[in-house]
Amino acid sequence: MKVLVTGGLGFIGSHTVVALQEKGYEVVIIDNLSNSDISVLDGITRITGVRPEFEKTDLRDKAKVIDFFNRYNDIEGIIHFAASKAVNESVHQPLLYYENNIGTLIYLLQQMQEKAVRNFIFSSSCTVYGEPDTLPITESAPVKPALSPYGNTKQIGEEIIRDTAKAYPKFKSIALRYFNPIGAHPSGHIGELPLGVPQNLVPFVTQTAAGIREVLSVFGDDYSTPDGTAIRDYIHVVDLAESHVIALERLFENRQKTNFEIFNIGTGRGSSVMEIIKTFEKVNTLKLNYKIVGRREGDVTAVWADTDLAEKELGWKARLTMEDALRDAWHWQQNISAK
Ligand code: UD1
Q1: Residue 129 is among the residues annotated as catalytic for this protein
Q2: Of the listed 25, 97, 129, 150, which one is catalytic?
Q3: Span from the CA of 126 to the centroid of ligand 1 (angstroms)
Q4: Under 8 Å CB-to-CB from 327, ≥6 apart: which residues?
Q5: Which residues share a beta bridge with 33?
Q6: How far is the CA of 20 from the centre of ligand 1 (A)?
Q7: Residue ranges of the chain with pLDDT lower than 70?
Q8: How does DSSP classify residue 59?
Q9: Side-chain half-sphere of 127: how many Cα atoms within 13 Å?
Q10: Residue 97 region, left (φ>0) first, then alpha (ψ -120 to 50), else beta?
Q11: pLDDT by residue (tens digit) across 261-294?
């Protein structure tokens, strides 16, 4: 069975390609390499022994999307990762974000209706919940006004899919709302490859440990949390990748309850920035240079997932720990630093 993975050379995409191949699926990747590197194809191949098909295509080019679906008429399902994800950049370049994240989604959905491709997994984010009223967050928690154009693209994306599912009853989709993906493949062959200065915590931590960054800034220690630093639900990317395969199989086997479903994908456990630093130091036996600075604008205090629905309906649960993720992230960083 053939699965299209858009953004398949990115951080979560590449790990999902591995998970799909390991379950025997044939994978074709579309990626425009705007935030990824072609060497990731080699990394995937080293892990699975199978080189996925690859098309360097920009999904903003509608003619190319049409051409792709004319050439590949055996696609059974699509996992759509290709999108921009830098919150701050989205504030300054909103139109780029709407074009990249919404325009491309529409072209894909149009071609799916055109070519009767029925099964669609969408990358959404816990960012849709904003600052939650209660913790842990269930899927029925209200979607709050988005704090950034990036966050808005995830909310709008979900709405577009909901309307599409209403209009086309044979179309089936699951949106996965990710919490904070971290870590790398335990083989050390694939991981996160941030371009420029990392915006996310763990890549900044590993680059600081590697001496690429001088000091990690901890954004705020005056939050109303036990140690004053903000809390997130950090999930190992390998667990996250697996959830996509399980979700897709739910659609393939027609086990979905409605033709558009939403699941939280997290561990159900919250960790503070300080816990991440201390655990990173402990599992990798090193010291991290860090300093406390002011809060980062737009950051929420505490977010972690209620994962009951994913466990009950998908039969999926995170297996790996934050310790595993921080060990694997450091292993990966050492590999890329040595290159
Ligand atoms: C951010 C986005 C989220 C997006 C996700 C994907 C915001 C508000 N949210 O999540 O919508 O889906 O990235 O990329 O931007 N931190 C530091 N120092 C650093 C970096 C981060 O202290 O150098 C802290 C942050 O303040 C936060 C935690 O670490 O408390 C996690 O930050 P990050 O990895 O950027 O993820 P989010 O902000 O949760």
Answers
A1: no
A2: 150
A3: 12
A4: 283, 284
A5: none
A6: 28
A7: none
A8: T
A9: 23
A10: alpha
A11: 999 999 999 999 999 999 999 999 999 999 999 9
